[in-house]
Write a structure and sequence with these properties.
The chain has 460 residues and is α+β, with helices and mostly antiparallel strands. A hairpin with a 5-residue loop joins strand 10 and strand 11. The longest helix has 21 residues. It is globular. It binds heme C (2 copies).
Length: 460
């Protein structure tokens, strides 16, 4: 989207109006935040009495000036967007703490001594909001990195890889079944809150280059972030997303029941704290029920959102060759089958995968490589087979050849405020995300169906 001064001003006014409208209804409002975005207004609530801005989440606990808030901001759905990052670059001349060369720059220890050099060094962060995740090839890996076609010529040894990823939102965390895109903070059998405590610690020692957190600090951060619920609450076309029986916005989301495996086509109930007592007995494809009441709404934009929700739940297409699902010899399903978006996005009204199940949906192949991303050539140590990928994904954690290019299915709430999408920010808009699926799975969506799906995703 192109931002004009007038456009920005009208957004600010609308935010102010929205804030006035809400505060008049139920004061005091120390437990909610409202921010405008391109589609409407997004709201975050906390289950605590008020937002604790003194929480260690906002404290400088490292050595490079970074806090969790550097990369997880409420107005950007608790991640960071390229537009806002570029503003920070302009205002600070590229010296804001997000611009650090441990992992903000394309290459580790990049030369950032002049403004011009900083602009080049942080180009992926500025263009797509990508942070460099540097991981060593696991000792037990079934593969070696044979070659990397690196547009930045970082000169890193092939025993490690730089993977450029979008910060995941630090909100709605109560619905997680996997922590991080590649699940690297998820320990099998361990509660997600414990994974999150380790994650907070690793973020402090890694992104912020600090000393390890105390147990109390880690616990306080997890308490703060797990109390947050974020969702779109107002849509410029459809009005209040809670009008006429709809259940949009974070308050309804905060009452949504969840346990791991709550809705799973494969009934793979894991043994861990937070798992459901019994398996779901298959998939209920009607994952989103927020806008059911709008089927016959008067406002056309409301009916469009309701149609988009129905498409997401029920539009069936051939799901083929998805690594982790039906793409490999060890996968649970053999061959192509007909399924919906909700085969993978199965957590009720949250949309992430309700169990930990890394999947390769085809975002990282050479065919989709853009010139700004590196292309890794990997060789299988046993079979000598080779593949190319822009992100090695789960395989950098497990070492498994079959895990190359696999990522988790993320939570789909608060989307409107946090473009671009996918782990590598490859979809600049929700239209592009929908187009990816239409092309990848040959769905054959009509222009109207695409519009409806986008209207729905924007209302989440
Ligand atoms: C320099 C930017 C940066 C900073 C600072 C940062 N994060 Fe993150 N965060 C990221 C990125 C990038 C990811 C996703 C990385 C991946 O999955 O490979 C992420 C992922 C997460 C997730 C995972 C959410 C999910 O859905 O799995 C949580 C939770 C989180 N961060 C919390 C924190 C906390 C708490 C702090 C402070 C202690 C922090 N982050 C500091 C960039 C940052
Ligand atoms: C075969 C499993 C599967 C199916 C089917 C599927 N998704 Fe996804 N979806 C994923 C995975 C996995 C990701 C994360 C991929 C990545 O970034 O590497 C994802 C990511 C997304 C994102 C980006 C979220 C973000 O935070 O960046 C959107 C939007 C999305 N899916 C919408 C849809 C829609 C709409 C459909 C149906 C047309 C659909 N998905 C069907 C597995 C699936």
């Amino acid at each position: 989207m192109k931002w004009t001064f007038a456009g920005v001003c009208s957004l600010v006014v609308l935010t102010a109006l929205a804030a006035v409208r809400h505060t008049a209804a139920d004061e005091p409002q120390r437990n909610q935040l409202l921010f405008a975005n391109g589609a409407g207004v997004q709201q975050t609530i906390t289950t605590a009495d008020s937002f604790d801005f003194d929480n260690p989440f906002f404290q400088d606990l490292g050595t490079n000036g970074r806090t969790c808030f550097t990369c997880h901001r409420p107005d950007q759905a608790w991640t960071v967007t390229p537009e806002r990052i570029r503003e920070r670059f302009l205002i600070t001349g590229g010296l804001d703490p997000i611009f650090r060369n441990n992992d903000g720059s394309n290459c580790e220890n990049a030369d950032v001594s002049t403004l011009r050099k900083r602009r080049a060094a942080f180009s992926l962060l500025l263009a797509k909001g990508l942070i460099r995740i540097g991981i060593d090839v696991p000792a037990n890996a079934e593969f070696t990195i044979e070659d990397v076609d690196d547009p930045y010529n970082c000169g890193a040894p092939t025993t490690k890889a730089s993977l450029y990823r979008r910060p995941l939102p630090s909100t709605n965390l109560g619905f997680l079944s996997t922590v991080m895109w590649d699940g690297r903070e998820t320990v099998k059998g361990q509660a997600i809150v414990d994974d999150l405590a380790t994650q907070a610690n690793d973020a402090t020692t890694g992104h912020a280059q600090g000393a390890p957190l105390s147990l109390t600090q880690a616990r306080d951060i997890v308490k703060f972030e797990t109390g947050l619920f974020t969702a779109q609450t107002f849509d410029y076309g459809a009005g209040s997303l809670r009008g006429n029986g709809a259940l949009g916005g974070p308050a309804a989301l905060s009452t949504q029941p969840f346990c791991i495996g709550i809705n799973d086509p494969l009934n793979l109930l894991p043994v861990m704290p937070g798992a459901c007592p019994t398996s779901s007995g298959g998939l209920n494809p009607n994952v989103f029920t927020i806008f059911n009441a709008w089927d016959l709404a008067l406002l056309p934009q409301r009916r469009s959102i309701a149609r988009g929700e129905a498409l997401f739940n029920t539009r069936s297409f051939a799901i083929d060759n998805v690594g982790g699902l039906n793409g490999g010899a060890d996968d649970p399903i053999k061959g192509s089958f007909n399924g919906t978006c909700t085969i993978c996005h199965d957590t009720p009204n949250s949309g992430n995968h309700s169990i930990s199940m890394p999947l390769n949906i085809g975002l990282t192949g050479a065919d989709r490589r853009t010139p700004d991303l590196p292309l890794y050539t990997l060789r299988n140590k046993t079979t000598q087979e080779s593949v190319t990928t822009t992100d090695i994904g789960r395989a950098m954690v497990s070492g498994k050849w079959s895990d190359i290019g696999k990522f988790k299915g993320p939570i789909l709430r608060g989307l409107a405020a946090r473009a671009p999408y996918f782990h590598n920010g490859s979809a600049a808009t929700l239209e592009e995300a929908v187009d990816f699926y239409d092309t990848r799975f040959h769905i054959g969506l009509t222009t109207q169906e695409k519009k409806d799906l986008v209207a729905f995703l924007n209302a989440l």
